[in-house]
Design brief:
The complex is a heterodimer. Chain A is mainly beta. Chain A folds into two domains: 121 residues, no CATH class; 257 residues, Neuraminidase (6 Propeller), CATH 2.120.10. Chain A is built from five helices and 33 strands. In chain A, helix 1 runs antiparallel to helix 2. Chain B folds into three domains: 109 residues, no CATH class; 143 residues, Serine Threonine Protein Phosphatase 5, Tetratricopeptide repeat; 63 residues, no CATH class. Helix content of chain B is 65%, strand content 0%. Chain B contains 23 helices and one strand. The termini of chain B are far apart. The chains are: A mainly beta, B mainly alpha.
Chain lengths: 484, 401
């Protein structure tokens, strides 16, 4: 068995041994992967640790729970700590595509520590996109202060802003999407005074207020056609209400929603699906861009009182030349469940299922389900789901990985989990996006929102984007906020 | 060769320190407490990242770091006194001959600042908010008097909340210059005051989720989008609603603040001693009662949740009075209610209800006063005229239409 030190030495070969983790005192130490530091850690660990250990035939209780997970080669080291804060030492050895980690733990002053059964971390050679883009925001209570769209390199802990709301006078930035997962071409909404939808293509950025063109509807949830020309948006009138004492504190609902389509070739917007008695939302595309999927529900009126009757069904229709080329058909529907966020990869469609409504992130019962588009069979993605809300998800470019947001850590702050998909309807145990300090998962006061895989680093366009908004307003808005 | 220090040399800085401390303590201590409540200093990766990416990181850091100590009531005044004294000692190096006038000027300057109307108003606000969150209702009504409310109408809801918590809302409602239902719930006030009041109002009504909602709203108005005070409140609300996981999370975060670490650990121990609520005991969430921006509806929903008590009933009645909805007001009293024993403003309102049974049940003194009022009212009057019977429902009903 190799020691931590040996393992780290070999770990300098980046692809091989990037995965190990230990934290002696979580309060003050941030690991740096240098020989010197680890030597010191090893010295400290061995000098304070008990001389004997009692063997236990169970995997160690660690946070985050990385025991038995499957990870892509080259991902940032999976740092962890003991769930109960004990000191510990981790020894690792790699056998083929499996990294075995043996954890010994003890409390200060213990004469006998505990050595747990080694747990495996499996490596997959299926490629994963190198970056994830997401929004960081306080967990959804009407207002916000600082928010932004960020990108995270999966091979390291590097997180950098794509754009923050300092650019648009502390307004809201949301609903980002990328054309074919390309970092070069993206859009997002910037709400507030002088706001609109920001389109970025290479170094070019421009602002379009969708509500002032075509049918004069604002855009909400976007879906960029794989050919890059069309973007379908839902146009939602969204409200929220708060329950008095229930453990589900918030219900978010739409009083109106339709679909509009933006044509980037003509810079024009048209209505795509408009009904008075139905709510259409969450558009998404088939990989070939020929089929548009969306969720649709009969509007029971008088929401929120009637919110329990809102059950969204999955719809699909052929799409060509900027319009629907056939009658919409129901792909899936239920009178007791509601679907949202459909995302397609090959023949598989992953979506969120809740008991009712359109905003599953506040529904503790929300789960991810998998639909086989060829057979029409649908089943819960059991491996991914937890007792808390499991929601917004995104496929990697080749469909072998998913990233999704889950509130399983504390019930309120969404965190990102990744899982491997075998292409045959099965996922592996999901793992929490690794952080340099595992405690950061607890300490971060913002939620991760709308994770999307991207194929590279988004270029720095913050200055150009800020230039789209009058900066004198930013100063005024800031001082207004401060005076509140 | 340095001159030997005289008694005066030693005494003047000490006196200056003491005088400035006294001024700051007695005239501005709540402002310091409030400053700490809305500040944030945390040793977390996100705090440092946002700090360095924000404007003026060093100044912000210095401000945040110092503000955390204001939680101890004498620290803020002591720091100002210390700064003033150091300033004096520095200037005295050059102006030794006029050290007493110099000390007087520094003291007078700080006194003037503390007595500025803006400072007094800020202090009053800070005192009212502090007293509200510490449930010192008598201090709230002492600060938010009817006279003070004449100048600053946003004080009215705080005063009425305090009277409500003391069970004396109807007796005091019309002592204040109320002009409508918004004086009871501050609806539509999207400022820090408005959010903070909504938070405390929801807490007092027992609507924990709504209190959490507004604690976040309040925090969003602070420079970091979260504050030490909001974190403390969030721990409290999550413990009240049985959400241990969230309480633990906020305790973990608050532990990263040196001045709050001990209390965060204590809260954590307390949370750990509470029974864990099942994370899936939410029940059918589509039937859970909701709060809305309409206070009436919220109170109606509270009745469904079994949260309706005498204080809530009084709030409903007072809201109906402020809406001049006498029909619904009179229907809130169950059959057999002793009307003559009701609070005065209720009886005054019932005088205007066209129901002989009710009229007969009102106490003779109120009926007599009403006759006198109507006699005077029927003279030609304008809104500029002095009130006939100030502090009565009739005055509100007829004159503020």
């Amino acid at each position: 068995m190799r020691s931590i030190y040996e393992n780290t030495k070999n770990g300098l070969k980046r692809q091989k041994n990037r995965i190990f983790g230990c934290q002696i005192t979580s309060e003050i130490m941030y690991r740096k992967y240098t020989l010197l530091f680890l030597s010191a850690v090893l010295l400290l660990a061995t000098s304070c640790s008990p001389r004997s250990f009692e063997e236990q035939a169970v995997w160690p209780p660690i946070f985050p729970d990385y025991a038995g997970v499957t990870v892509p080669e080259g991902i940032a080291p999976l740092t962890f700590r003991m769930e109960d804060g004990r000191q510990f030492r981790a020894e690792q050895r790699r056998e083929g595509d499996t990294l075995w980690t043996t954890v010994s733990a003890w409390r200060r002053g213990d004469r006998v520590g505990v050595r747990y059964a080694p747990f495996p971390i499996y490596f997959s050679h299926d490629p994963i996109d190198p970056y994830i883009a997401y929004r960081l925001i306080e967990p959804g209570y009407e207002s916000w202060r600082n928010m932004g769209l960020y990108q995270r390199e999966l091979g390291s802990y590097d997180e950098s802003p794509i754009v923050t709301n300092r650019a648009n006078n502390l307004g809201c930035v949301n609903c980002h999407t990328f054309a074919g997962r390309s970092p070069e071409r993206m859009l997002f909404h910037a709400r507030g005074k002088g706001g609109g939808t920001v389109f970025a293509d290479g170094d070019e950025v421009h602002l379009l207020n969708l509500a002032t063109v075509g049918p004069q509807r604002q855009g909400t949830y976007p879906a960029w056609n794989p050919d890059g020309r069309y973007v379908v948006f839902s146009s939602n009138e969204t409200r929220q209400c708060f329950t008095i004492r229930n453990q589900q504190p918030v219900e978010v609902y739409d009083t109106e929603s339709d679909l509009i389509v933006y044509d980037s070739a003509t810079d024009s917007v048209q209505m795509l699906v408009e009904t008075k008695d139905r709510l259409e939302t969450f558009p998404t595309w088939s990989p070939d861009g020929c089929t548009l999927y969306w969720c649709e529900a009969v509007d029971p009126k008088h929401i929120p009182q009637s919110r329990g009757q809102v059950h969204y069904r999955l719809m699909a229709a052929p799409f060509a030349e900027g319009t629907l080329a056939g009658e919409p058909r129901e792909i899936w529907g239920s009178d007791s469940l509601s679907c949202s966020f459909p995302r397609v990869s090959g023949k598989w469609l992953l979506l969120t299922i809740a008991r009712f409504g359109t905003f599953p992130i506040w529904h503790r019962e929300a789960e991810l389900w998998l639909l086989d588009l060829e057979t029409g069979q649908m089943h819960p993605a059991t491996e991914l789901n937890s007792g808390e809300s499991d929601s917004y998800h995104s496929w990697s470019s080749d469909g072998s990985w998913v990233v999704f947001s889950s509130r399983r850590l504390d019930g309120r702050y969404t965190r990102l989990f990744l899982s491997h998909f075998d292409g045959d309807g099965h996922f592996t145990k999901p793992f929490l996006l690794p952080q340099e300090d595992p405690d950061e998962n607890q300490l971060r006061l913002k939620s991760y929102n709308i994770p999307e895989f991207i194929t590279g680093r988004v270029p720095d366009r913050q200055e150009a984007i800020a230039g789209l908004f009058p900066q004198e307003d930013a100063a005024q808005n800031l001082s207004k906020e401060d005076k509140r | 060769m340095s001159r030997k220090k005289t008694l005066k040399d030693r005494l003047v800085p000490v006196l200056l320190f003491a005088a400035v401390f006294a001024v700051e303590f007695f005239l501005r201590r709540y402002s310091f407490l409030q400053k700490e409540y809305f500040s944030l200093f945390l040793n977390t990766p996100d705090y440092w990242t946002e700090l360095w990416n924000g404007p003026q990181p060093l100044l912000t850091l210095a401000g945040d770091f110092i503000a955390q100590f204001y939680r101890i009531v004498w620290v803020g005044p002591a720091l100002v006194a210390l700064a003033a004294t150091l300033c004096f000692l520095l200037l005295r190096l050059f102006l030794r001959r006029i050290q007493i006038p110099l000390a007087v000027v520094i003291f007078a300057g700080l006194l003037v600042v503390a007595l500025l109307p803006a400072s007094r108003e800020a202090e009053r606000w800070a005192r009212v908010e502090y007293a509200t969150r510490t449930y010192q209702w008598h201090k709230v009504v002492a600060a938010a008097t009817p006279d003070a409310a004449e100048k600053d109408a946003v004080l009215i809801p705080y005063a009425l909340l305090a009277w409500s918590e003391m069970g004396k809302l109807p007796e005091n409602l019309f002592r204040y210059p109320v002009t409508g239902p918004q004086d009871l719930d501050l609806e539509g006030e999207i400022t820090r005051h408005g959010y903070y009041f909504a938070q405390m109002n929801a807490e007092c009504l027992g609507c924990t989720n709504e209190a959490i909602h507004h604690a976040f709203q309040t925090a969003c108005t602070t420079p970091h989008g979260m504050s030490l005070g909001s974190l403390r409140q969030l721990i409290k609300y999550n413990l009240a609603s049985g959400n241990r996981a969230m309480a633990f999370k906020y305790c973990d975060i608050l532990e990263r603040n040196p001045m709050n670490a001990a209390s965060a650990r204590a809260a954590r121990r307390y949370a750990a001693s509470q029974p864990e609520q099942s994370r899936l005991d939410a029940g059918p969430s589509d039937s859970a009662s909701v709060v809305t921006h309409n206070t009436f509806q919220t109170l109606r929903e509270m009745a469904k949740e079994g949260l309706f008590n005498d204080a809530a009933a009084d709030r409903v009645r007072c809201l109906l009075l402020l809406q001049r909805d006498l029909r619904n007001f009179s229907s809130t009293f169950p059959e057999g209610t002793d009307i003559s024993a009701l609070p005065l403003c209720y009886q005054q309102a019932l005088c205007l209800v066209n129901d002989p049974d009710i009229q007969r049940a009102i106490s003779p003194a109120v009926t007599e006063a009403f006759s006198q009022y109507m006699e005077a009212y029927n003279q030609i009057r304008t809104k500029e005229d002095d009130p006939i019977q100030p502090g009565t429902f009739w005055e509100y009903y007829f004159m503020y239409y």
